[in-house]
């Protein structure tokens, strides 16, 4: 029996299953981001069109939004480990198809339009798998540690995700240069297979049974949505992140900055792509010792404001290292809101509804990355990359001001 102590910085890591869970989270995140970075760079080289990058996000977001609530329903009604393993197998299949579609023997029989159609079709397949993987993974996490360690586990799981978000983009540019696009995709496939092995170390957990909860799927989905909209701190926290990421995100069009504005190539793109995550994980290591949940809502608003301000700095910069620092600080501020929001999502939902609440969060926040990528691509094409990012920073700051005016009573909430 492991003695849980909320004051122990490493308390959650003393649970073996939680260690396997965050190891998988790190590797899964890093691997998919390696694939995302090299695919985005290859597409921009093929098309020289920022909108092509925007369609990458849209292709994943559409099935994710359409199916995520069903994924959450399934996560609440079925054994979670099996859902994760099946979803990951589908993602591996998608990566194999991406590898094949870039082979010379295949390319010579496909037009450019047909090749792009296959690529976006594969991204839709991956988005479909993530619609089931994401809410299931989120809903499993609270079962791996005691309730008193939710804040600590949220910090470490977010740190693992951010570490993967550092390693993936940071390595991607160098792998692209050293191994080439095709061989890097083979590395991606191999790493995803390792993720399957890590998931196999988790115990099977039957779904939580609730007396009287035998309603159909549509009633189940509406129940999850109603819970989110009736729980103000959940609704405002995910809304704040939704609009910040939707309008303030710059990740999707970083290849434009790397190639056309800062002129630093694939290796510079890797550094730019990793900078927010470096800032995030450095901050999260501090948050494991000094949790931001005592004055949770105040800290979340400050973090969102900082994110918007340094997005403006990045938009205005024409110097590589100033751009890196600005992205570093956007990641540092964003990590604070991530830890607070993840703690909220563990503390407030009941066990039998965690999958559906995680799915609504995914639609609001996770898919906003992909929809934000499409918005960024369209805006960059219409107005230019720097002006579109600057407008996004301004919108983020205005959203923070609006949410502050509507949520002052949440300043009294204590999560720890």
Could you walk me through the main structural features you see in this protein, from its secondary elements to its overall organization?
The structure is a single chain. The chain is mainly α and 416 residues long. It has one domain: Growth Hormone, Chain: A. The protein is 79% helix and 0% strand. It has 14 helices and no strands. Helix 8 packs parallel to helix 11. It is globular. The model has no long low-confidence stretch (mean pLDDT 82).
Beta-strand proportion: under 5%
Biggest sheet overview: none
Following the backbone from N to C, one meets helices and strands in this order, namely HHHHHHHHHHHHHH
Amino- and carboxy-terminal Cα gap = 24 Å
Number of DSSP strand runs: 0
The parts where pLDDT drops under 50 for at least 5 residues are none
Residue share in helices? over 70%
Provide the residue-averaged pLDDT: 82
CATH class: Mainly Alpha
CATH architecture: Up-down Bundle
Total domain units? 1
Considering the chains and any ligands shown, give keywords for the structure.
0% strand; 416 residues; Growth Hormone, Chain: A; mainly alpha
Task: Please outline what is shown here.
By secondary structure, the protein is mainly alpha-helical.
Write the layout of secondary structure elements.
Blueprint: H1 16-47, H2 50-77, H3 80-101, H4 104-107, H5 112-140, H6 150-199, H7 217-230, H8 232-248, H9 254-261, H10 265-289, H11 296-316, H12 320-347, H13 354-383, H14 385-406
Helix pairs in contact: 1-2, 1-6, 2-5, 2-13, 3-5, 3-6, 5-13, 6-10, 6-12, 8-11, 8-12, 8-13, 8-14, 9-10, 10-12, 11-12, 11-14, 13-14
